[in-house]
Specification:
The complex is a heterotrimer of chains A (471), B (210) and C (198). Helices cover 39% and strands 16% of the residues of chain B. Chain B has 210 residues and is α+β, with helices and mostly antiparallel strands. Chain B is elongated, with a radius of gyration of 22 Å. The chains are: A alpha+beta (471), B alpha+beta (210), C alpha+beta (198). β5 of chain B pairs antiparallel with β3 of chain C.
Chain lengths: 471, 210, 198
């Protein structure tokens, strides 16, 4: 395959920046010409995938909705070659994604309720001051060119616990594992992150699963908008603001862990691990069923290096556990070939204030915690929204047939109705019993989001200079 | 025998549709119209007649022209395709259709050439067999359970899942008492009717944009 | 027009074959039927409830005389009827990814078949040779092939367990109940509506 030109690809597509603070700005273009002028100025400061000699204090990236590309007056023939789901936008896809009930648009933040967001501008920074400084700089460009209105911003930040930056989200789970490895994307490959070959070894996925213009896992170039130059080195991004009902979660865990195994502190952490497939420190329960193990978690050669082949009954990692649902590895047979085209790269951060957990919670405290605006900004990158993100959301999170779980949904992320349940498969060991949680509340609620196209630097330049020609 | 797979039989019928230029609307359109109004839930004719797991009725307008260098050719009649996956014996099944749902069968098949009607069961069965095409290869995920057995199993599965969910952290003695009670209720429950849970949907076709 | 009923999709496809190639296809199906191991992949894909291939030889379209003109064709035709769970795209993606050799062995004898890999031209071909269902019935629209298989496992386990459950002390019951749970614990998924597709 051809070598990747990292200077043409926006940086966060190729790797996470490891900067704990971020501000996401949502822009609306009033006038195409002034908008192009603004983009022209941004073009010189957009962070690319080029490796850093010295890590910068902050980064800038940009992505567009279909409405945004339309507002920039791209040719209609080009606009029509974008995939249907991107043209419709995430709000219109609500029924497919299960974004109904408490997840429906009427509960979203105002900025997402109308179709006004044209662009996402992402700023990441090492400190909050760095983010603010970059934001001021960007704001000056906005004012100077009058190229766009900022409809709103969303701050996000890693959670800080006892003074140290963590990778945890608000339910207490350590995140940041399991991003796929792709061919040619400069990053140390870790066993467990790519795909399985027929000898059972892990190899990187085809580049075309992430980037347009490269061969994908189906042995062809992924379906992409024309012209090629507009699409190549670009990708699609899903942005979803996921509110976390921390109070509901803590109450639920306390309530059910009292009935699980010995009903003690260890049982509580074990049940929490059974929900997700990792102990809250990140140790995968498939590898370490009895307790967390930093030696595994901190070793990149071990932290995602496992398969489910020996655990078809789900006694170690429940069949419906979150990480098993979204990355089944070899669980569906066929050397994992049924899942190679269903992978996504995640780049989000938590948002909202940290809530210390002393292990107890009353109903009043739970309600208060739930009411605070906190959760996770979920961002996923993939070459094909329908085949990758939407498929996982619709078939593996909101549904369970591929895992032989019928209509059962992902416990934490599913939109639950009455009568739903979560089954923890077990064995004859009294500390690992078969167990069923029921009366599932909604732990996560969608508060907005959209689909974006992340252009390459070349494509951005073409947009700025009005050189997009659909042929 | 290629039509049979375990206890399931794969019936494929191609019945030529009457070609009558004077019929307005034409016979194939009349069939289509009738089918579009036919329900697929527990009031469906195939829920009433016994033995159908899954079945479809399709008006096949023509063969397909796949493009040069293949030759273009056309059928002289349209055909009514009936594909059914049924329990047990073919004669019993066909006789069952003619006995339990004759009005529907007549309404659809009266538009087909040579159709003798349901009244004479032997003639009806013979006609259907004359339209039968041998299934060359028949695959069935589950080939040893009848429709009633399948519906009972689904009902049991639902009830068992609910029982288990409701009995977390309950003492063995109480669970046992409840379980004995549960068995009584389950055994007494009326059997599920076929196609009871057919949902209503506005989009029915699906295809490239799914 | 309704290709979908509950969780199951009715796909119909017809492809032309030059008559001399039909014999090779018949041999392929004969071997597939005789060698159960070849069907294992199809069974493991577990989202097909029923599927069949039907060869209509060129002169075998049913003929009843009267006003009907006899159909005598140049090509034999291969009819394919599938009852599968999941979306159209998911179904074809899965087959193309894991059963491409088998698909090719069946359809390469059909005119202008492009091969089952890569998947986009394959999907174009299927879209061209697929025709839509007018009426689709299933006795259990709320259940997929997996749901049905799981249901039978639960029924069987219950039938085995019930004798022990009613007799015996609570301790004996507890032991037998645990065995029962372990047998059914991976087969308790809800049945119900299919995910919406558009």
């Amino acid at each position: 395959m051809s070598k990747l030109n990292a200077t043409d690809i926006q940086g966060f597509v190729l790797r996470g920046y490891n900067m704990p603070y971020a501000r996401y700005c949502f822009l609306h273009f009033e006038d195409p010409q002034r908008a192009r002028e603004l983009l022209g100025k941004l073009l010189s400061i957009v962070t690319t995938g080029q490796l850093w000699d010295e890590k910068p204090k902050s980064t800038v990236n940009i992505a567009f909705t279909h409405q945004g590309l339309t507002a920039l007056r791209l040719p209609i023939a080009t606009l029509n070659t974008f995939p249907v789901e991107f043209q419709q936008g995430m709000k219109a896809r609500a029924r497919i994604l299960g974004d109904t009930g408490c997840n429906s648009a009427e509960h979203w933040d105002e900025v997402w309720r109308e179709d006004h967001v044209h662009a996402w501008l992402g700023i990441n920074g090492v400190t909050p001051e760095d983010v603010a400084a970059r934001f001021d700089a960007v704001n000056s460009l906005l004012t100077e060119t009058n190229g766009a209105r900022c409809l709103g911003t969303q701050d996000a930040a890693s959670l800080v616990e006892d003074g140290a930056v963590t990778l945890k989200e608000h339910f207490g789970y350590t995140d940041g594992f399991g991003n796929p490895d792709y061919l040619g994307v400069c990053r140390a490959t870790q066993p467990g992150q790519g795909k399985l070959d027929k000898d059972g070894n892990w190899t990187p996925l085809a580049t075309g699963e992430l980037l347009l213009g490269y061969a994908d896992e189906a042995g062809e170039l992924p379906v992409a908008p024309v012209p090629h130059l507009l699409a190549s080195n670009g990708t699609f991004m899903v942005y979803r603001k996921l509110h976390e009902n921390v109070g509901t979660f803590r109450s639920f865990l306390n309530q059910w862990s009292a009935l699980y195994g010995a009903g003690d502190e260890h049982a509580k952490e074990k049940l929490a691990a059974k929900f997700v497939g990792r102990w809250r420190d990140g140790t995968p329960i498939e590898v370490s069923p009895d307790g967390p193990n930093p030696a595994i978690t901190q070793d990149p050669n071990k932290s995602t290096n496992f398969k489910y082949g020996d655990d078809s009954t789900g006694a170690r990692c429940p069949i419906g556990a979150h990480i098993r649902r979204v990355h089944p590895r070899d669980a569906f047979g066929f050397d994992g070939r049924l899942i190679n085209r269903r992978r996504i790269t995640r780049r989000g951060l938590p948002y909202g204030p940290y809530a210390p957990d002393d292990g107890t919670i009353t109903p009043e405290q739970a309600a208060q915690l739930d009411a605070v605006d906190r959760g996770v900004i979920f961002m996923a990158l993939n070459a094909n929204l329908a085949r990758q993100f939407e498929f996982v959301q619709q078939q593996w999170i909101a549904y369970g047939n591929d895992a032989h779980l019928g209509n059962d949904k992902d416990l934490l992320m599913g939109s639950h109705g009455p009568g739903e349940k979560y089954v923890v498969q077990g064995d004859t060991n009294p500390s690992n019993p078969p167990f069923v949680c029921s009366s599932l509340p909604n732990f996560v609620e969608l508060r907005g989001g959209e689909y974006f196209f992340v252009p390459s630097i070349t494509a951005l330049g073409m947009i700025v200079r009005e050189l997009v020609d659909p042929r | 025998m290629a039509n049979q797979n375990g206890s399931v039989y794969g019936l494929t019928l191609l019945c030529p549709i009457l070609n009558d230029e004077k019929a307005s609307p034409s016979h194939d359109l009349q069939i289509r119209d009738y089918l579009s109004k036919l329900t697929a839930d527990s009031t469906s004719p195939f829920a009433i007649a016994p033995g159908t797991h899954l079945a479809r009725i399709v008006v096949m307008d023509d063969v397909v022209y796949v493009g040069m260098p293949a030759c273009e050719e056309h059928l002289k009649s349209k055909y009514l395709v009936f594909e059914s996956n049924l329990d047990g014996d073919l004669d019993t099944y066909l006789t069952g259709l003619a006995t339990t749902i004759p009005e529907h069968i007549d309404a659809i098949w009266s538009h087909c050439t040579g159709y003798p009607g349901c009244a004479d069961k032997a003639k009806f069965v013979q006609y259907m067999k004359n339209c039968q095409i041998e299934t060359t290869f028949f695959f069935a995920a589950v080939n040893d359970k009848s429709v009633p057995q399948t519906l009972t199993a689904l009902q049991t599965q639902r009830a068992v899942a609910q029982f288990i969910a409701e009995h977390q952290g309950i003492s063995p003695a109480e669970t046992q008492r409840d379980f004995i009670e549960f068995l009584k209720v389950l055994d007494a429950a009326p059997p599920l009717k076929p196609a009871m849970n057919a949902p209503s949907r506005d989009i029915k076709t699906g295809g490239r944009n799914e | 027009m309704s290709n979908i009923n509950g969780k199951v999709y009715a796909m119909n496809a017809i492809t032309p074959m030059r008559p001399w190639k039909t014999w090779i296809l018949r041999l392929v199906f004969f071997l597939l039927g005789a060698l159960k191991s070849k069907q294992q992949d199809l069974i493991n894909l577990s989202f097909i409830q029923f599927a069949r291939w039907v060869i209509i030889p060129r002169n075998s379209f049913p003929f009843f005389g009267g006003t009907q003109e006899r159909d005598s064709m140049k090509y034999d035709y291969l009819l394919f009827f599938s009852n599968f769970n999941g979306t159209w795209n998911q179904y074809i993606d899965a087959f193309s990814a894991v059963l491409s050799d088998g698909l090719n062995l069946i359809w390469r004898w059909s005119e202008k078949f492009p091969g089952s890999v890569p998947v986009t031209p394959f999907k174009d071909y299927i879209a061209r040779v697929q025709f839509d269902t007018d009426y689709y019935y299933t006795a259990y629209p709320e259940a997929t092939a997996n749901d049905v298989k799981s249901a039978h496992i639960v029924q069987q386990a219950l039938d085995n367990f019930r004798g022990q459950a009613t007799t015996g002390t609570p301790e004996q019951f507890q032991h037998a109940y645990l065995e029962f749970l372990l047998t059914v614990q991976a087969h308790l998924g809800d049945t119900g509506e299919a995910p919406l597709v558009s």
